[in-house]
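Preliminary data (for renewal application), zinc ion complex.
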Amino acid sequence: MRRMLVAGTQMQCRNRLRRFMSHQKRMVRPHTPSLAQMTRTAIDTLSQDPDGFFLMVEGGQIDWAAHANDATLVISDVLALDEAVSVAQAYAQQAAVAPLIIVTADHETGGMELRLTPSGALTEDGPFTMPDATPFWVTWTTTSHTAQEVPVTAQGNLADRLVGTHENTHVFDVMRRTLFTYATWLPVICAE
Ligand SMILES: [Zn+2]
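Predicted structure:
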């Protein structure tokens, strides 16, 4: 039986999990249009504005798949996000003013852990295969959000300001600085 650390009564937890699972069944993959296609259309439209633009693209299905502790769906939805990032990078290469591209998450979901050997845990998915054919397994500790730190990667103007470990609001500060040059900096919590 999967561990459930979702706050609430057992009945509430069961109902939440049921909703997550029914949501997953409704979503047909690959999504149409794909996240990459929607990103391309959004950039094509917004980049017409001579004042510049801000675009937030969310790979929201990754979270749903992790709530359902379904590593197969998480992997396919992360790959879909990766394609969307490639679209943004292709735009950045030919843009007159190089944009700041930030890829990050607002939280982790599921306590997802990758292992190179099977643990035999009931909450384990796999095996999956890396591009070099190395097998790996995925284990879960919860069906809810966690306080795990998340990675942030960036390219373009002021991307170097995101190096290190920061409060999550620092991402906002960097974006604000990029959009509005008068913005002031808040201190870095822990620079590596
Ligand atoms: Zn969530």
